[in-house]
Design goal:
elongated, alpha/beta, 244 residues, single chain, 9 helices, 6-stranded parallel beta sheet, 4-stranded mixed beta sheet, 20% strand
Length: 244
């Protein structure tokens, strides 16, 4: 099974960027300087990379070799562009069923969601470049390999994806408790994108406002909420039920 590849050394990371590798995160030693680092910094500024400035002790733990103050994680999967993902969906015989994850950071929940989405025949998953759970070994394992079988797209901002999908008349459904509408009353046979938020904060207010629908699951017990991956599965399988 493929897992996240960890590379180290300034020149190695520069070459990975120039080769258009999907870089999950770059760890840079605090206070790093020098001509080669300046070259790396120029590359990083031209992209939208997830960068963390850390003490050298952190880098020593991440790498056993001569890291030169820089370590990077390369994703085990290749991401697709939003434009290609949507265009491909327009040429499909099935109604689009996208999944947008707004601020989800737990890798095991992410992996479980990927697995369920693949089982439900989802068109693709859209995540934000920064502030989202990475695709690492835990994600791959929890997804049971489904991560390699479903298109995943990274965007600068989830709101940009929302507006792009709406130009194709794809309806956005926000999973939230801030509504009286339940998911069973919404037409899920039409082209849709389901939005799931972070377990602690939920969907951001700006995304909630942009969504076409808000929907929740009925809660009959004493606990007020479900695990996000479980809730996501319930939403996805209601779409499957309506489409069968």
């Amino acid at each position: 099974m493929e897992e996240t590849t960890r590379i180290f050394g300034i020149r190695t990371v520069i070459e990975a960027i120039e080769s258009n590798k999907d870089i999950e995160k770059v760890f840079i030693q605090k206070g790093l300087s020098g001509p080669l680092f300046q070259e790396l910094n120029r590359h990083l500024k031209n992209g939208n990379y997830n960068i963390s400035h850390v003490p050298v002790e952190k880098l020593n733990k991440l790498s056993k070799g001569n890291h030169q103050g820089v370590v990077a994680n390369i994703s085990p999967v290749s991401f697709v562009s939003l434009e290609k993902l949507v265009e491909d969906s327009q040429n499909s015989s099935t109604s689009p069923l996208f999944l947008l994850l707004d601020g989800l950071t737990d890798v095991r929940n992410f992996g479980a969601i990927i697995r369920t989405a693949e089982c439900c025949g989802a068109t693709g998953i859209i995540i934000q470049e920064k502030g989202s759970a990475p695709i690492n070994a835990d994600t791959v394992k929890t997804s049971a390999g489904a991560v390699f079988n479903i298109p995943i797209c990274k965007v600068n901002h989830i709101k940009d994806a929302v507006f792009h999908l709406q130009t194709y008349d794809i309806k956005l459904i926000a999973a939230t408790e801030k509504t009286d509408d339940v998911i069973y009353d919404i037409d899920l046979k039409q082209p849709i994108a389901i939005i799931m938020g972070d377990e602690a904060k939920g969907i951001s207010n700006s995304i909630l406002k942009a969504a076409n629908y808000r929907a929740k699951l009925p809660m009959l017990g004493n606990i007020a909420s479900l695990n996000v991956s479980v809730a996501c599965g319930a939403f996805l399988y209601e779409a499957v039920r309506q489409r069968l």
